[in-house]
Every structure is written in C-alpha cells, then in structure tokens.
Amino acid sequence: MKFELTRRIKNLPPYLFVELDRKKQEAVAKGVDVIDLGIGDPDLPTPDFIVERMVEAVRKPSNHRYPSSEGSLAFRTAAAQWCNRRFGLELDPASQVCCVIGSKEAIAHFPLAFVEEGSVVLVPTPGYPVYHIGTLFCGGDTYYMPLVAENNFLPDLESIPADVAQKATIMWLNYPNNPTAACATKEFFAKVVEFAKANNIIVCHDAAYSEMTYDGYVAPSFLETPGAMDVGIEFHSLSKTYNMTGWRIGFAVGNPELVGALKKVKSNVDSGQFEAVQEAAIAALDSDQSCVEEMRKIYTERRDTLVDGLNELGLKAERPKATFYVWFKVPEGETSASFCATLLDKAGIVCTPGNGFGDPGEGYARMALTVGKERLEEVLERLKNVL
Ligand SMILES: *Cc1c(COP(=O)(O)O)cnc(C)c1O
C-alpha cells in the first residue's frame, strides 16, 4: 500500500503549538523546571456552579441521545439573550444562532459554505492560524492583511488592491486580538461594513476575547455596528471567558443566511455538542457574570506584574487592555526565534515567537498570562539573569 496525502495536507504549515510543545517536552525531559507562557489556555478551573450543572445534566437520560447539530433551542436562546444583554443586539434564537463545538470548529468549517477554488479570503497576519488553514482546505487563496503597530494592529483596508477586494468572499477579523492584544474601535468596524458592502464580502468576526477586558474597557461586538447584520457573522467562545477550553462549546451569531449556511455545513459534518455540555453552558451564560469579573481581577494583577517587570528589564511591553497576551518587541539584535530559543534554553521559559503567527510578527514575542503571580515573578527573576 502506498498512501498519498492530498496537496491540502502536504501544503500545511506545521501547526504552531505542536512545534512549541515538542521543544518544551525536550526541556522537561532534561529535568528543566519549565514555565509555559506559550499557548493561550487558562490555568484556572471552570467555576464550580458550571461544573455542578454539568454533573446534574450528565445524569439525565434525555441528554444521552443525539443532540441537534445547531444546538438546543434552550442553548440558542441563552446565547441570544446573552448577546442581547451584553451588546444590545436583537437576535432571533431560531435563525440567528448556531451552537458550535468550540469556535475553532466553526471557524474551520464556515468557509466550506463560501470558499472554493479561485476564491480569495482576506486574513489578518499575524493571526490565529485557522483562518488561513480553513481557506486552504477549501482550495481558496489567502490574501494577508498585515497588522502593524503604526496602524494600531488594524488592517489597512485602503491598501487592499481593488481586484483582490473584488474577488474576496470573506474577511476574517479578531478583536480583541490574538496575538497582538489590540482592540478595534467602532469607527474601524464602521469602515469595515462600508468596505464589505462595496465589495460584497462576508465579514467573519472572531470574538473569543470579548470578555477578557481590563481597566473598565468594554469590547464591542462587530454586530453592534450599523449595517453589520447585513454582512457579518460573529464567532463566540466560552473557552476563555469561563475557563472552559476543554469543554468545546461556543456559538456563532449574526446574519440569518450566514448562520443558516453554517448550520447546513455542520449538519452534514457533526451531530452537535453533548446536550449536557450545552446545559452547563446555559448556566454560565445565564449567570450574573461575577465569575468573569473575578477572572478579570486575577488577569489584571498578573498583567501588571509581568508588564511592569518587563519594562523594568528594558523590554518595551504595552499594557494590554484585553486578552491574556503580552505582545512585546524582542531586544535589538535578536529575532523572534532566537530570543524565544534563548529563553527556553537559558531560563526554561516557553513563549511564542511572533513570526509563528505570520511574517509581520517577526521581531515580537507573545507571553500568555496563564501562570500565577508568583510564577510570573520567577519569570522576571530568570529573565534578569539572561538579559
Ligand atoms: C482561543 C481562541 C479561540 C477559541 O477557540 P475555541 O475553539 O472556542 O476553544 C478562537 N479564536 C482565537 C483567536 C483564539 O485565540
């Protein structure tokens, strides 16, 4: 037998975190006390009241059968009401909400409805790898929109050539942003709506970090923008907001035709998320959100510890007002890769080289605030010895 992989698999770039994890495991095997600030995975547990609801839900035989692929009406109603309270939207649970098995799943599958050979997809770089990979899997071509500091890590829509804009079917956006921690303004979103309407482009907004905000900053939904409901779909995740990365639950909301297209794809690919997980997610969405406020306090303290410490060591790091990432310039004379390799070899610290998210990320590194304050102080202590 000779197994021949498809071009789409052969052309895959190595998935960023697989590589990082391999290097980390090598260090661990050598006995190094590794501090991992690499992947964005909350270290804190899911709040108890959510776990309790899950335990009850698991015992119900009615939850042991196939779920519906789009999610239960109860889940979609909770998601719609959460969005309506939070962003002032008026979503219809029946036609404007789809339950997803983690937003990564939906981000990867949505393009199946709108991208084929010859389609162009506008993808921010540096960015979450799945936007490009979803395009690749559908045979489409990625046009990268660079995110640079001079433009506050927002894509420069005017620099997109007219013929590219004409051919484009989807634009991906993600604010608050991974990896840069940048936030979008309402003015920027208004320009996006105008651009999307002028060029007949679907706007896919990844809002995974909408609740991970600090210092009183409140992140807008793209769908709050006048006209956005005509062009947009937004991907929400419970992963970061409620420390639920392992549970695999989120939802997509927005234009009914776009949500309907996602449902059509998914009904042919999966059979939905376990209804017990949906019930636990309803408990999270319907709660008073005080657990989210707790989480914000913890991350604010960690952020200040790390950012203040990095600046004292002469590394210029901005204080992010959202996400749990600190995105900073590596020292003069270093590349992203050389700096991150030095940190691992000399200090046992794992962080992500900025160029791993795309070329314009070269010269940056990303640290995730996924360890406690004491460990971050240890990070700073070790850095002092290396720099
Ligand atoms: C973490 C993350 C997600 C969330 O993924 P889930 O599949 O919902 O766990 C989505 N987009 C970005 C940019 C992320 O960093």
What features would you describe in this structure?
- This protein has a 7-stranded mixed sheet, sandwiched between helices. A 3-stranded antiparallel sheet has the order 9-12-11. It has a two-stranded parallel ribbon with strand order 1-10.
- It is built from 15 helices and 12 strands.
- Helix 6 runs parallel beside helix 7, helix 13 packs parallel to helix 15 and helix 14 crosses helix 15.
- The chain folds into 2 domains: 136 residues, Aspartate Aminotransferase, domain 1, CATH 3.90.1150; 239 residues, Type I PLP-dependent aspartate aminotransferase-like (Major domain) (Aspartate Aminotransferase, domain 2), CATH 3.40.640.
- Helix 9 links the parallel strand 5 and strand 6.
- The model has no long low-confidence stretch (mean pLDDT 96).
- The protein binds pyridoxal-5'-phosphate.
- The site of pyridoxal-5'-phosphate (PLP) has 14 residues, from helix 6.
Number of helices: 15
What Rg, in angstroms, do the CA atoms define? Answer: 21 Å
CATH architecture of the largest domain: 3-Layer(aba) Sandwich
Average pLDDT across residues? 96
Roughly how many Å apart are the termini? 53 Å
Q: Which geometry do the CA atoms define?
A: globular
Content of β-strand: 5-15%
Report low-confidence residues grouped into runs of 5 or more.
none
Indicate how many domains the architecture comprises.
2
Largest sheet: 7 strands, mixed
Instruction: Say what the CATH topology of the largest domain is.
Output: Aspartate Aminotransferase, domain 2
In the CATH hierarchy, what is the class of the largest domain?
Answer: Alpha Beta
Summarize the helix and strand pattern as letters. HHEHHHEHEHEHEHEHEEHHHEHEEEH
Widest sheet: strand ordering: 2-8-7-6-5-3-4
The count of DSSP E runs of length 2 or more, i.e. the number of strands, is: 12
